[in-house]
């Protein structure tokens, strides 16, 4: 894990022959072929950021076919939750290896069509139960590598899944993505007041960092009982307050 | 605030300051949103129901401080005295500290990097005048990062009884909890046990049970068997818990006979028994 993070850097901009359609502009960097970037944020943990990131990526991929295009859209997912990387499991990609090419790390393709690719610290752990017990500076360094040293290639969308909070990972991600003009942020909450409270803080973070907020998603609004089909709200939604 | 990693002086100062605290319990989870703060709040409420037990609740989730809201203390401010910062008292025997009390508006975001968060945690442990306390409960954010390392390092000389680890039944939570358990082993933090939250949902209309977060890999029960860690209990998913938390009230008082409240009480008793068996070196009899 340590070696993978620290010693595997390949020079950017060298002739790139791997992966699908990587840009050959020497100055452009590995995100030059990415059209839109969406950060999925929430001040609160456990509201469904990773689930929504995964579903959003899958839905965007299919959106291409629905619009009459001959092929799916190309979508990448960047999982910057270093302590709790959930996306590999959600896409049944646990245990996959990360390979190198001239342009850097090759993201892991999770489907046969190679229309969804993923990078996560989950792929770099020798043992899935191993904890990533890092302080901020080390986390920041890996996130920078994930942004600049992964050969993302030509993507219609890059969905960035984040951990809860407004700290190192979030600042490092926004700083690293800023030159590429991120499309914006999707903020996820659940109806409870404690979630909405954290989301207010996340919206402040977006404002202070100049991130455009695409909108807020209220997840787990209620539960439909599979036995009697009654809709059970968890609580009075605090979202409109 | 000092941004450098914990120095020897701070650790010794904190050891001195916390000499009046008999038992220290960390509430951890690798996973977010499993109910750490909810559990911490109700552990505090449950222990403090005995007016002879002095309880302190410290919220070190710097970016997402939920404890003030859950304890009905939003908007309270922290005061300073000659002996340090005064916690906010919900009851005579229940004091609370959180970064939430230091923010002037609920919209204020704490956008701090690790070193600044560490400094805040040091201040919370060194500068808060808790007084004579039977139980100090420390609520943490999800993960295994700065806050967790700092808490463990600053408390390294002060004898922590152990950690209660919270999870929900699904594998996405359990995989993060295994990491948290690995963290505890790495830093030699004893584990009191695991609590499985949101186990089953009982429909208020038809009363039938559903598993909203199915334990596809056996849930906390199998995890605890595999890793030989006590399972302290399973708490059903009761919408009333969230409603009580939103109102800043104790669910144990609001719905005392509910299965969830009974589950909480069983778990709290096991934690008290664990602490009773593991007395600190400076002997005091536990009053509760």
From TrEMBL, chain B:
Top-level division of the source organism's lineage: Eukaryota
One Pfam family it belongs to: ParA
Location of this chain's protein in the cell: Cytoplasm
Cofactor (UniProt): [4Fe-4S] cluster
InterPro entries: Mrp-like_CS (IPR000808), Mrp/NBP35_ATP-bd (IPR019591), NUBP1/Nbp35 (IPR028601), P-loop_NTPase (IPR027417), YlxH/NBP35 (IPR033756)
Keywords from the named record: 4Fe-4S, ATP-binding, Cytoplasm, Iron, Iron-sulfur, Metal-binding, Nucleotide-binding
Chain positions recorded as ATP binding sites: 30-37
Residues annotated to bind [4Fe-4S] cluster: 203, 206
Cofactor note: Binds 4 [4Fe-4S] clusters per heterotetramer. Contains two stable clusters in the N-termini of NUBP1 and two labile, bridging clusters between subunits of the NUBP1-NUBP2 heterotetramer.
Function: Component of the cytosolic iron-sulfur (Fe/S) protein assembly (CIA) machinery. Required for maturation of extramitochondrial Fe-S proteins. The NUBP1-NUBP2 heterotetramer forms a Fe-S scaffold complex, mediating the de novo assembly of an Fe-S cluster and its transfer to target apoproteins. Implicated in the regulation of centrosome duplication.
UniProt cross-references to HAMAP family, sorted A to Z: Mrp_NBP35, NUBP1
Description of how the protein assembles with itself and partners: Heterotetramer of 2 NUBP1 and 2 NUBP2 chains. Interacts with KIFC1.
Family of this protein: Belongs to the Mrp/NBP35 ATP-binding proteins family. NUBP1/NBP35 subfamily.
Protein name: Cytosolic Fe-S cluster assembly factor NUBP1
Gene: NUBP1
């Amino acid at each position: 894990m340590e070696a993978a993070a620290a010693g595997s850097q390949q020079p950017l901009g060298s002739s790139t022959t791997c992966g699908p359609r990587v840009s050959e502009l020497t100055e452009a960097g590995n995100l030059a072929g990415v059209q839109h970037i969406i950060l999925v944020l929430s001040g609160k943990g456990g509201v469904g950021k990773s689930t929504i990131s995964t579903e959003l990526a899958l839905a965007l991929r299919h959106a291409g076919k629905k619009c009459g295009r001959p092929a799916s859209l190309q979508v990448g997912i960047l999982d910057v939750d270093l302590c709790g990387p959930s996306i590999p499991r959600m896409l049944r990609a646990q245990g996959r290896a990360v390979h190198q090419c001239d342009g850097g790390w090759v993201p892991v393709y999770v489907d046969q069509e190679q229309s969804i690719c993923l990078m996560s610290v989950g792929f770099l752990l020798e043992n899935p139960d191993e904890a990533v017990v890092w302080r901020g500076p080390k986390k920041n360094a890996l996130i920078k590598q994930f942004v600049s040293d992964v050969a993302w290639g030509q993507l219609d969308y890059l969905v960035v899944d984040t951990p809860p909070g407004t700290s190192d990972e979030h600042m490092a991600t926004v700083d690293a993505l800023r030159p590429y003009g991120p499309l914006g942020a999707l903020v996820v909450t659940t109806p409870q007041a404690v979630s909405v409270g954290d989301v207010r803080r996340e919206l402040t973070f977006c404002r202070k960092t100049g991130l455009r907020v695409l909108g807020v998603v209220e997840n787990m609004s209620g539960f439909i009982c599979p036995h009697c089909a009654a809709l059970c709200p968890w609580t009075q939604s605090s979202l409109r307050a | 605030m000092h941004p450098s990693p914990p120095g020897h002086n701070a650790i010794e100062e904190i050891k001195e300051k916390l000499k009046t605290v008999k038992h220290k319990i960390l509430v951890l989870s690798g996973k977010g949103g499993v109910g750490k703060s909810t559990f911490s709040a109700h552990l505090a409420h449950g222990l403090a129901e005995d007016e002879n037990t002095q309880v302190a609740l410290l919220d070190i989730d710097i970016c997402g401080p939920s404890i003030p809201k859950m304890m009905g203390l939003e908007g309270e401010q922290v005061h300073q005295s000659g002996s340090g910062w005064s916690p906010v008292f919900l009851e005579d025997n229940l004091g609370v500290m959180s970064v939430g009390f230091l923010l002037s508006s609920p919209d204020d975001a704490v956008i701090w990097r690790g070193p600044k968060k560490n400094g805040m945690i040091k201040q919370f442990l060194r500068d808060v005048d808790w007084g004579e306390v039977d139980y100090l409960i420390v609520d943490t954010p999800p993960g295994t990062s700065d806050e967790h390392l700092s808490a463990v390092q600053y408390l390294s000389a002060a004898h922590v009884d152990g950690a209660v680890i919270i999870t929900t039944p699904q594998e996405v939570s359990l995989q993060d909890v295994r990491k948290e358990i690995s963290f505890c082993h790495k830093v030699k933090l004893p584990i009191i046990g695991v609590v499985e939250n949101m186990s089953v949902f009982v429909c208020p209309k038809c009363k039938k049970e559903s598993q909203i977060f199915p334990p596809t890999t056996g849930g906390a029960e199998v995890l605890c068997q595999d890793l030989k860690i006590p399972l302290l209990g399973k708490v059903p998913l009761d919408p009333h818990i969230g409603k009580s938390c939103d109102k800043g009230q104790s669910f144990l008082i609001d719905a005392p006979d509910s299965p969830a409240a009974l589950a909480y009480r069983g778990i709290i008793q096991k934690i008290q028994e664990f602490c009773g068996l593991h007395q600190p070196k400076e002997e005091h009899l536990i009053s509760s």
